[in-house]
Amino acid sequence: MSESLQDVNPAVLQALRELMQDDYALLLDTFQGDADLRLRQLREALQADDMDAFRQAAHSFKGSCGNMGAAALEQACLEAEAAGLAGDSAEAAKALTVIEQAFVRLKPLLH
Amino acid sequence: MRSEGALPRPVDPEAAPLLVLVADDNPTDRLILGRLVERLGHRVCLAEEGKQAVSLFVERQPDIVLLDALMPVMDGFEAARQIKQRAGEDLVPVIFLTSLTETDALVKCLEAGGDDFLTKPYNPVILQAKIRAFRRMREMHQTLQSQRDVIAGQHASLVRDQELAKIIFDRVAHSGSLSDNSLRYLQSAYAMFNGDILLAAHRPSGEMHLLLGDFTGHGLSAAIGAMPLAEVFYAMTSKGYALRDILLELNSKLATILPVGIFCCAVLIEVNPTKGLVEIWNGGLPDVMILGRQGELLERVTSTNLPLGVASRERFSPDPKVLVMHPGERLLCWTDGVIETRNGAGQLFGDAGVLRVIDAHKGEPEQVFDGLLSALSQFHGSPEDDVSLLQVVMPERDHLPAPQPQPLTAAMDAQQDWRLSYTFRAQAIRGQNPLPFILQKLLSVAGLRARAGALFTVLSELYSNALEHGLLRLDSAWKQDSDGFALYYQERSARLQALEDGWICLTIDHRPDVQGGELVLTCEDSGAGFSTVRSAADYAGRGLALVAALADELAFSEQGSRVRVVFRWQLGHTPEA
Amino acid sequence: MSIQASMSADSQILTINVKGRFDFGAHQAFRSAYERSGLTPRQYVVDLHETDYIDSSALGMLLLLRDHAGGDSADIRIVHCNPDVRKVLSISNFEQLFSIE
């Protein structure tokens, strides 16, 4: 299902560019930095088998992905959040992999 | 952010910018939302978690708060609670930013005091709609609050005004001679607000004037008319005017100043213990009742006049009813609160209620007043607060209070060496009472002031003797019984109005001497005098016995149509004290 | 309390009906009953057959009507009073100002 979603919605990016004007680059940097932080939190939580921390990190990441128009990544975060909520670490590990792949695909598209 | 929500017009043209607090731990979301809000023309302050949001709220007092639900340090739920608490009665809309979808979480937002939700990703159009809606709600709330504050402020100042007005009213309405031994009265603390007024004052000659009044309406408008009423009543009574003159003046004063529709139902009474007479004028109040020494109902004086302030001068009838009242007999009157008291079933206390109480206290009339009060409160179920009640007991003749001696002040009376003479002809006699004017002149002699009461009594007796017997040819023999009295005063009034000829001449001659002075009053009229045959009876009937007792000399000439009275006074000596 | 005013067909007589308590609460309605613009009746009839109570502020309102209708030259009839209402009117001697039937 996640495959059918766009990695990024160009219309959203265009709207953001218009909104942020000169600060658009700052927004991209901020998102990048936050994404790095969330990915680290997700990995650590999975390692520590702390499903609650995993869910929280996925939830927060999901919000900003939605706002950035990163549809595939947002969907992946939603699934990770659900896995965290269910306390299912196997599903969580799968979801994290999907998140990492989606983020790799997304990075070059953010400009 | 959603792409389908095209960016709204940069500045909301509707109103001044708001200050919006945005609290979100996610830096990307915070950045986007902050910029969206700015784009709508508002100012933004940003917080990264709940605790910071609360302190920014206190510091910056934003108009609207946008709160992420899940944040580190302090979550949005707790922050919302604290913000709502600190906002007090101000309306500060709290909108939760959330991608939460579970009902439980949304319920938690509402329970924390949240007013609405904004879901991620943000839709600029929805954000604008929400900010607008809450701005309107907030403005409405502020309008309500400030209107409420204005109303509360006005109410407080009204209450203050009323308290002040009440102090003035009470001083006016409870001054004068209300503490006189012969009186008992009840006036509720709310008298001002139901327009009830009770006044008492003595004429210089010793008669007491009473006024029980009830203005239409309630509140300040009902109270305001009491001021001129009291002023005229006190001033004219102390100058010695008769009830009739006071009534004419009160009616015309009130008719002039009160708006149509506001008037004063009143009873005016003159109590004359020396002669054992009362004059009663009732305009619009319930029957005045006179009880005998055994508490039996002797007399009811029904309202036969329009209330004060209604009728024009021509239509107004100022003639009181004159009745004999013996010592120990009592007069009762009240405002309509007494007969209009209703019980729980809506029945009126009425006339019948009053008569029952009077009947129940036969043989113990001194209990009637209290009996009436307790019957009213039993009937009504609680003490009445819309009732004024007055009782006058006719005093014994030898228990009359001595006139107040006034200290001798001036030794300037040596200059008071003069003689004046006034002749009043028919037209003047019909229209006015010249005595207060004459008395004022007499009281310019300081040495006579101590005897003002006696002087005024003597002047009144001489004048009414000349008028009633000399000019109007009334027979004092009529005054033997109550019916005769009524007839006498009816005739007096009728004949006075028809008076076409005749005159009364008052001459006052004052000569100072070394010790004090001598005053000679002469009253002469155009009448035929009294016959020698009936002179003894007439002499008594004409109240001249009183004159003889008060003056130092009394002499008649011209068959009694000329009376001469002498007063002597000495410096530093007050004969009546 | 309710107040109804009706004009006779020839516009000569305005009849005002007062139902229930005739007291301060009726003030506005009573006033508008005769103050409506364009009314110039020759005679006013205040019908109190459905009035069960009248107080002194109602007396004031009647005086206002009298004033409005020309004061001493006003032609105002107060009709169908019950005994209680009649008593209040006569204590204040309103027979001297109104024709009370």
The average pLDDT value of chain A, as a whole number, equals 90
The greatest interface between two protein chains, and residues involved on each side, is:
A-B, 26 and 20 residues
What gross morphology of chain A would you assign?
elongated
Low-confidence stretches of chain C: none
Shape of chain C: globular
Number of strands of chain A: 0
Describe what this molecule looks like in 3D.
The complex is a heterotrimer of chains A (111), B (577) and C (101). By secondary structure, chain A is mainly α. Chain A has one domain (2-109): Four Helix Bundle (Hemerythrin (Met), subunit A), CATH 1.20.120. Helices cover 78% and strands 0% of the residues of chain A. Chain A has helices spanning 10-20, 24-47, 51-68, 71-86, 89-106. The radius of gyration of chain A is 14 Å and the shape is elongated. Chain A starts with 9 loop residues before the first helix and ends in a 5-residue tail after the last helix. Chain B folds into three domains: 19-144, 3-Layer(aba) Sandwich (Rossmann fold), CATH 3.40.50; 174-399, Phosphatase 2c, domain 1 (4-Layer Sandwich); 412-570, 2-Layer Sandwich (Heat Shock Protein 90), CATH 3.30.565.10. In chain B, helix 8 packs antiparallel against helix 9, helix 10 (350-360) crosses helix 11 (368-380) and helix 14 packs antiparallel against helix 17 (544-550). The longest helix of chain B is centred in the N-terminal third of the chain and has 50 residues, at 124-173. Chain B is elongated, with a radius of gyration of 40 Å. Mean pLDDT of chain B is 84; it is low at 403-410. With 101 residues, chain C is of the alpha/beta class. Chain C has a single domain (2-100), classed as STAS domain (Transcription Regulator spoIIAA), CATH 3.30.750. Chain C is built from three helices and six strands, in the order ββαββαβαβ. In chain C, strands 1, 2, 3, 4, 5 and 6 form a six-stranded mixed beta sheet that branches. In chain C, strand 5 (76-79), helix 3 and strand 6 form a beta-alpha-beta unit. In chain C, helix 1 runs parallel beside helix 2. The mean pLDDT of chain C is 88. Chains in contact: A-B, B-C. At the A-B interface, helix 1, helix 2 and helix 3 of A face helix 1 of B.
